[in-house]
Amino acid sequence: MALLNLREINKKFGGIHALNNVSLTIGAGEIYGLIGPNGAGKTTLFNVITGVYLPSSGDVEFNGRSIIGRKPYQVAMTGIARTFQNIRLFQNMTVLDNVMIGTHAKTSAGPFGAIFNTKSTRSEERLIRSQSRDWLDYVGISSQTDYLAKNLSYGDQRRLEIARALATRPKLLALDEPAAGMNATETDELKLLIQRIRTDGVSILLIEHDVKLIMNLCDRVAVLDYGQKIAEDIPSLVRQDPKVIQAYLGGDLP
Amino acid sequence: MRLIAQRLVKKITSNKRALLLGYVLLFVALAVLPFLLSNTVGRTWVRILDFALIYAMLALGLNIVVGFAGLLDLGYIAFYAVGAYTWALLASPQFGLHLPFWVILPIGAGVAALFGVLLGAPTLRLRGDYLAIVTLGFGEIIRIFLNNLDHPVNVTNGPIGINKIDPISIGGADLTRTHEWLGISFSGVHIYYYLLLALLIFTIVMCVRLENSRIGRAWLAIREDELAAQAMGINTRNIKLLAFALGATFGGVAGGLFASLQGFVSPESFGLLESIMVLCMVVLGGMGHVYGVLLGALLLSVLPEILRSTASPIQQAVFGDVYIDPEALRMLLFGLALIVVMLVRPAGLWPAPRRRAMLDQDVGRD
Lengths: 254, 366
What we know:
Chain A is α/β, with parallel strands linked by helices. Chain A is built from 10 helices and 10 strands.
């Protein structure tokens, strides 16, 4: 069953056609890779899916319902969580606080509950705290709970972003270049983490420059070039596609 | 030195009995403070203390908007004005209305909250400098309205202000007059002191609980990174409006108490300088830290008064004449103090543990 269904998405910024009739489908339980040269429109597509941009035309269906026009926070509440290409953690808050904010979408305590410290607020708060610790454990940074987010190592910041996104309880986790800046060991650990997340029932959309990671990890891969989808298939076939080779290496085909 | 102090604090706070004793001592000290003051330096100082408590409440309200949610509001005094005028209009000869305080207080809070939302709604997309300019304008608009709403229909009495505002009275007992309970004579300023102290403690509890709640975390998230906050499912519009409304509510309540204590309100009490003053209390004390803001508010409202009362006598004693007007000296020293604090302690006198941890960890890294 299709979890996410993009139909003929167009996005224009003035004269620039950033996305040109892009259609793609991500199935439940799938790891779907999205690659393409710099400026191909990957992040733009990401922002369309997560409600940051409104597409010029086309439709985004999630879980059988159109989510076009929904605000980013509404998209997050319907079950699409994301990380950012240039890490956007709450820098001056602790690691635990970061994940606790991730639970916002699925919790409900309001200002009056907080002011009067009601029983339901207290028990919800306990739950948030223990769940958040579990998520830190899940991504493997539970020893850093009380550090400020900005003092974590680069790889751990990426992990924290994933933990924070998972705390929103998504059905689809969209990762924007999670391996950027990671060394080989960290990338391998990331691969294992992503596989585990999928095993636990969350589908994954992965934008990545690390072609090896994409080829090893993804069930299917789509390639964007100049805002157009030029290929979509299983990794081993995409790798041999002449159009993909041309897009990456440039020049005419022999 | 600092380490010893930290250990001492830890030792005391980890011992429940010591902590309880500390609270009892603090409570007793706060309870006898007004009598101590009125019997040594005079009753004026109890009044100054009353105003300090009102300012503390005001600063804590602004701290929600500026400190927690990170929305720079330069027109905060407008909510104080709205609260004060609501009280003045509903409990004075102006319209012949004399509602009891327990009716006016929630009305004042509600009206101020409404104004908070009114200011918040159009400024949701703005941040930083741009928000500061719009809120500054809003503050001035409110003041100018109050100044000019004496015609065509006289609502606010214009620049003359509203006089003879009812004091708070409980069971027919006017709280600004002297009463004798249990053989002790309480004057109006004493009674107001206890009333304001109780309200301030309530305010502090509310602020601390809010900060450590789901809503408080959402505010901090917006302050840190609005786009990331949205990606976490935080409805930034509503959460920001909530910050404006709650901050305004505190301001409105403080304004109402000010009006009832003073017995008189006029637009000139609500100028831009007052807004800046309250902002200084927040920044100087430690933005986002409830106790730091409290410290900032108490310092900035009491120290200038001490200066005012000592500057002339000291000059008289040393030079035989008064060369510098205390008022001018006050602003001079105030400006100097701000510069020094920002140079030496950029996060404020008593920053939030979070921010302090941030600075400490940074130092540890270098």
